[in-house]
Specification:
Structural class: mainly beta
Oligomer: single chain
Largest sheet: 22 strands, antiparallel, barrel
Number of strands: 48
Strand content: over 45%
């Protein structure tokens, strides 16, 4: 336990040093705050504010705001931004300063390349990192969740094992699962539970989604191997109410509420967000097995699913203070989420239909966030604490067939459940605490240094109310992660070069309690894995012309094992105390071309990626059970291209194409010759593409309030099992798939009400994902939305 104590002491010491430094920095000085806007009142991001007499500078944030601590006296502010006229402003810090400055565009520029106030999204895309930024506000009238939006973007492929609430696998440039880290407003969503996954979040609750591919900047502080997905919520200083309800096929209902009260005079706010999802998921499944009385398969049939219902709900309340002397933002949030999922069959096949098996989740979270910009120093700190319960209910003594008939009721002495050998009602409870402190110090407008400190703590315990022989986590296990990052960034005066170099230290400490199967029932084996790794990387963006950005990035990345992987789940997944971190060398080369030609906005983006990964963590099944092991070395390489054409905001066409070749590079598996050496990794698509079109056909008559959307997805066929195994004609494959989606949106004249209709899988194609599990056919939905500000 001494390494744990030492690390806690070390991180606590660093935290106090930060506080002391901040106190010394601001002592005897007064804070001057302000906002920089253009002539349309749009905030201008990354504007430089220099104090001439003191030779110091700061920059505006994504809201165009700045804050700088100055000694008493009169000072001169010089405000500059590329594409705008320089501006000087006199201030006196003896009086309270909260200023607003409007910059004028330079008039000696051609209209074609005149630069508007750059948004935070545009500034992010101009860095050396490969990033996709999705403006979800344009899609909030449609019946979409976060997964459905992400699936339309290049390099991202999402495969689901059924309808609403089903398990899914999100792949980013060929890597998937826990190799991708998820964030909400920059706060990691690690171990949040099954109620708060992407397919639960309605798009109404999100303002944008950021997708970092491969190389990840240190401000996220996570141990992502493949990249990061960051969902951002509304953060504007205004009061609003936004609510929507949709209903459609398979008795599917989805409700979402996003609301905020902002008090401008006293500068505080309340936010309330909520969602509710429900579906019977009773779509048709073809070729299910038909059994006789002895359990023999006599044929197949097409039936509706009868035990696949899913519901989830979330309620989140937040209180915050803004623009105070002690904080730019100080907020506190409480979140409760729950779900219940009935399982129709095991995840990997349809041979065993269930009639009672289900899982449930309850998540309770408290979080706090603090942001402050001092004279030069900027701090962003957050913490999350909570309890997450996952309940597995396999208590039925009956067996069902696909016709929802009971074909067997077991004797009282037969303890077998629908899935497990012994009936079980197991509750797995996690107590979690995550904290993060991000510090940025700009030396001047060209150079800055940043540091990020992350600590994740999890304590897992379990209890089985039915199976007294299941002693998993009777003695709790704990898992801690420490990630420390440092980065240097350089930007030249002409904004033609953006360079960043960084290093990251990863450490995992665990205390795992195991029952000794060879001893009595109370015997405990204690294991304390402890290991650390050093990662590093760099990114470079060049802007030789105003319309062209070229990018190059590399990272030696590590991904520490997750709680389920190393600790197990107490039922179907056993622990593996020898599990090693995954490692990957990530390379990206990219180019972005943005051009305005007359009334057309054109954007083209291409990215070539290479991922050389070792010690891949894979689930090794033994029937419905198993554990996670380091099984594979994998080489992922590919290219993604996207193009977007926007005509007067009336019609927009976008398309993206991804090709990826992912092969196994380990010649041996646990000493045995790997038959798929140099062959493609099983069950991962190679080629897929999307085409998306939006048109406002009556833009003159209806004032841009009616929009038609069309979306097409194509995925080529790929092997379900090893590429090198068996004859070519005998290999099991996931067939190629072509699906279409149609949406119609109408916004009423007062712009408070909107109505939309959607038809998914328009041609009613047979769609298979994840081990040939059939997905829903054609479905239709209608959505109503009410919004006021």
């Amino acid at each position: 336990m001494f390494p744990i104590i030492n690390n806690i002491k070390s991180n606590t010491t660093i935290f106090y040093l930060i506080l002391v430094f901040c106190s010394l920095t601001i002592y005897g000085q007064k804070s001057t705050t302000g906002v920089i806007i253009d002539q349309t009142s749009t905030p201008i991001v990354d504007t430089t504010i220099e104090i001439i007499e003191l030779n110091i500078a700061t920059k505006t944030d994504e809201d165009g705001k700045f804050s700088i601590a100055l000694p008493s006296g009169e000072w001169t502010l010089k405000i500059s931004h590329f594409g705008y006229e320089n501006h000087s402003y006199k201030i006196n810090t003896n009086s309270k300063q909260n200023i607003q400055i409007q910059l004028k565009k330079r008039t000696n520029q051609l209209a074609e390349v005149a630069i508007k106030g750059k948004t935070a999204a545009k500034r992010q895309k101009e860095t050396g990192f490969t990033i996709e930024i999705i403006n979800t506000k344009e899609l909030q009238n449609l019946t979409l969740d976060a997964n459905q939006v992400l699936k339309t973007k290049s390099g991202i492929n999402i495969r689901e094992s059924g309808g609403l609430g089903s398990g899914f696998n999100l792949s980013l440039n060929g890597l998937s699962g826990n190799q991708i880290r998820y964030f909400m407003d920059g706060v990691p969503m690690e171990n949040y539970g099954s109620s708060l996954t992407l397919n639960n979040y309605p798009i109404l609750l999100l303002e944008s989604i950021e997708v970092y591919k491969g190389v990840v900047p240190i401000n996220f502080g996570g141990d992502a191997l493949a990249g990061v997905i960051n969902m951002k919520t509304e953060n504007k200083k205004e009061s609003f109410l936004d609510a929507s309800y949709s209903y459609g096929s398979f008795n599917t209902s989805r409700f979402a509420l996003s609301s905020k009260y902002y008090n401008k005079e006293n500068q505080y706010y309340f936010k309330l967000n909520s969602f509710y999802n429900y579906s019977d998921n009773n779509f048709k499944t073809d070729n299910v097995p038909v059994f006789d009385a002895l359990g023999n398969i006599t044929g197949t049939a097409s039936v509706k699913r009868f035990h696949d219902q899913y519901k989830s709900a979330m309620l989140s309340g937040e209180f915050g203070l803004v623009d105070k002397s002690f904080a730019d933002i100080l907020s506190f949030k409480l979140t409760y989420a729950q779900n219940k999922k009935n399982l129709q069959h095991p995840e990997f096949n349809i041979l065993r239909p269930f009639g009672a098996f289900n899982t449930r989740n309850n998540t309770y979270l408290f979080s706090a966030n603090y942001k402050k910009a001092f004279q030069k120093l900027r701090i962003n700190a957050n913490l999350v604490g909570g309890r997450v319960q996952e309940i597995i209910d396999d208590t039925s003594d009956k067996r069902y067939n696909w016709l929802n008939e009971v074909i067997e009721t077991r004797d009282p002495d037969d303890f077998k459940g629908e899935l497990f050998e012994r009936r079980s009602l197991f509750t797995l409870q996690d107590i979690l605490f995550n904290s993060q402190v991000y510090i940025k110090y700009p030396f001047n407008k060209n150079h800055d240094l940043s540091v990020n400190l992350v600590h994740n703590y999890l304590k897992r315990k379990g209890n089985d109310a039915v199976d007294e022989l299941n002693r998993a986590f009777k003695t709790p296990s704990t898992l801690q992660k420490y990630i420390t990052s440092i980065a240097y960034t350089f930007k030249d005066n002409n904004e033609k070069i953006d360079f960043s170099a960084f290093a990251k230290r990863y450490q995992l400490l665990a205390s795992i309690s195991l029952n000794d199967p060879l001893d009595n029932v109370d015997a405990i084996i204690l294991s304390e894995p402890n290991y650390s790794k050093i990662g590093y990387g760099a990114s470079l963006a060049l802007h030789p012309f105003r319309f062209l950005t070229t990018k190059l990035s590399y990272e030696k990345a590590y991904r520490l094992p997750e709680s389920y992987e190393i600790l197990g789940n107490g039922v179907s997944q056993s622990p593996n105390i020898r599990l090693k971190p995954e490692t990957s060398d990530n390379f990206n080369i990219g180019v972005i071309i943005q051009k305005n030609i007359s009334n057309v906005e054109l954007e083209y983006e291409s990215n070539i990626f290479l991922r050389k990964s070792t010690d891949f963590i894979r689930f090794s099944p033994q029937g419905p059970f198993g554990n996670y092991e380091n099984l594979q070395d994998v080489l992922s390489r590919g290219i993604e291209n996207s193009i977007s054409i926007d005509y007067k905001k009336i019609a927009k066409l976008s398309t993206n194409v991804t090709y990826q070749n992912i092969t196994e590079e380990n010649q041996f598996n646990e000493g045995v010759l790997n038959s798929n050496y140099k062959g493609k990794v099983a069950n991962i698509p190679t080629f897929f593409m999307n085409i998306n079109l939006s048109v406002k056909p009556f833009y003159k008559k209806f004032d841009n309030r009616c929009t038609l959307y069309w979306s097409t997805y194509f995925g080529d066929d790929f092997y379900l099992a090893e590429e090198n195994g068996g004859a070519s004609g005998e290999k099991n494959t996931i067939p190629s798939q072509l699906t279409h989606r149609f949406d119609l949106e109408y916004i009423f004249k007062n712009k408070k009400f909107s109505i939309s209709g959607s038809v998914t899988n328009l041609a009613d194609a047979k769609v298979y994902d994840n081990f040939r599990i059939q997905n829903p056919g054609r479905a239709a939905y209608i959505k109503l939305r009410y919004s006021i500000k």
